[in-house]
Design goal:
alpha/beta, 11 helices, single chain, about 350 residues
């Protein structure tokens, strides 16, 4: 069985992270409930003739994927795996608004055609003229993890040698506002804003200069709060890891942070703990951004300025664990290691 290496990581996020060798995070101003990504100059990465027909999600996905492939030295990936929670939701809303406004008559199909969840992966393939395996996973908050797991299995089982994997979601007007209304009715709503972003990775079976190892992925729909510590230790043991040097968690400030705090302060009290959603917001595939952070922690052997850090051990990083959950469901563990 081959080893799965991550050779590049590129992110468009609410912070200035795109094509940055050194990551510096700024504290967000209070009062934001929706947070747009910091968009690059898309015309530098996409032909103007194609750019004008693309939604934000497609623009972000195509641009991030292009740089991820370049940095990983991949010309044509053997597989393109994409995760998204709502796909091109803005185009979906445009089509539905037109449907209502025109009483279901005289509709142009463009917005509908471009609103499908696999539009990002399809546009990436069209730009590359790539006819290889292409799949999109739509599985709520573990959409990205599902795509990453598929890629890992394909490479380890030697079905393919290279893969492009990413997670992308965009803000919308109606759907995002409805989400926020629901969350405000909770006993303790989130304190992080709704956001958007696109994060892509170049994976292969080849160890290169800036490679790290994707050792393991595990997805559990439901774990009781009291069982988190046991589940994580079992996951680490499965991969012959006794301890990790950094733990990256998806804290949102709501009542479900107990899944992180109640259990992890014991087993990981001497581990550097990082949280990031207070800086880039929350969306379905934000766990891809956590992987982006984990990649940079291992490659650069430091914690980026501005990240929320707890229990900083000030030692080198060899193994990094990512743990994310959403409202007590869809728990995911991702284990990264130095080569």
């Amino acid at each position: 069985m081959k080893t799965c290496y991550i050779n590049s990581a590129v992110a468009i996020s609410a912070q200035d992270t795109f094509e940055k060798a050194v990551l510096v995070f700024k504290t967000l101003e209070e009062g934001h409930y929706k947070l747009e990504a910091v968009y690059p100059e898309f015309k530098n990465y996409i032909k103007p003739s194609a750019l004008r027909r693309m939604s934000k999600a497609v623009k972000m996905g195509v641009s991030a994927s292009k740089i991820a492939l370049e940095q990983a030295e991949i010309i044509q990936p053997d597989a393109i795996l994409t995760g998204t929670g709502m796909g091109c939701i803005a185009d979906t809303e445009t089509f539905l608004d037109a449907l209502i406004a025109n009483d279901e008559d005289y509709l142009t199909p463009t917005a509908f055609i471009q609103s499908t969840h696999n539009t990002v992966g399809a546009q990436i393939a069209l730009g590359l003229k790539c006819k290889s395996y292409n799949n999109t996973y739509v599985n709520a908050n573990v959409s990205f993890e599902s795509a990453l797991l598929d890629a890992k299995l394909c490479l380890e089982l030697e079905d393919y040698k290279t893969a492009l994997v990413g997670g992308v979601d965009e803000l919308s007007k109606n759907f995002t506002d409805l989400q926020l209304k629901v969350e405000k009715n909770q006993a303790k709503p989130k304190t992080v804003p709704a956001s958007e972003g696109a994060t892509f990775f170049g994976l292969s079976t080849e160890n290169k200069s800036n490679s790290i190892v994707l050792k393991g992925i595990e997805i559990n729909h439901n774990i009781e709060s009291a069982e988190i510590e046991t589940s994580i230790n079992s996951f680490l043991k499965k991969h012959n890891i006794n301890e990790v040097d950094a733990l990256i968690t998806g804290h949102t400030g709501d009542a479900f942070d107990k899944y992180y705090d109640k259990n992890l302060n014991t087993s990981f009290k001497n581990t550097t703990q990082l949280s990031y959603k207070n800086l880039v917001g929350d969306y379905f595939t934000v766990s891809a951004f956590a992987l982006f952070l984990g990649y940079h922690v291992l490659v650069n052997q430091n914690v980026s300025e501005g990240l929320h850090v707890k229990n900083n051990t000030e030692k080198g990083f060899k193994n990094v664990l990512l743990y994310n959950q959403n409202k007590g469901k869809d728990h995911s563990f991702i284990l990264l290691s130095l080569c």
